[in-house]
């Protein structure tokens, strides 16, 4: 699992970016978040996640919001 934070989130379209401890960003869709609804996702929240190949490149999957 990778540790990171929500760096950006567009609640209208349910997608955003996570940033890991090394400042690498990865795309995510709110449907990949296991324990929160999209309306509860906020910039700066800590998260753990995995990275997998998506339709347009790497994306975060199996995301757990820690806060």
From TrEMBL:
Domain named CSD: residues: 1-65
Molecular functions (GO terms): nucleic acid binding
Keywords assigned: Cytoplasm
Entries under InterPro entries matching the protein: Cold_shock_CspA (IPR012156), CSD (IPR011129), CSP_DNA-bd (IPR002059), NA-bd_OB-fold (IPR012340)
Compartment(s): Cytoplasm
Matches recorded under Pfam families: CSD
One term under GO cellular component: cytoplasm
UniProt xrefs under PROSITE patterns: CSD_2
SMART domains per the UniProt record, alphabetical: CSP (SM00357)
Descriptive protein name: CSD domain-containing protein
Organism: Apilactobacillus ozensis DSM 23829 = JCM 17196
């Amino acid at each position: 699992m990778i540790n990171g934070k929500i760096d950006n989130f567009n609640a209208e379209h349910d997608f955003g970016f996570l940033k890991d401890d090394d400042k690498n960003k990865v795309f995510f869709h709110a449907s990949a978040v296991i324990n929160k609804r999209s309306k509860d996702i906020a910039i700066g929240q800590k998260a753990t996640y995995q990275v997998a190949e998506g339709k347009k490149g790497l994306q975060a999957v199996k995301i757990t919001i820690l806060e």
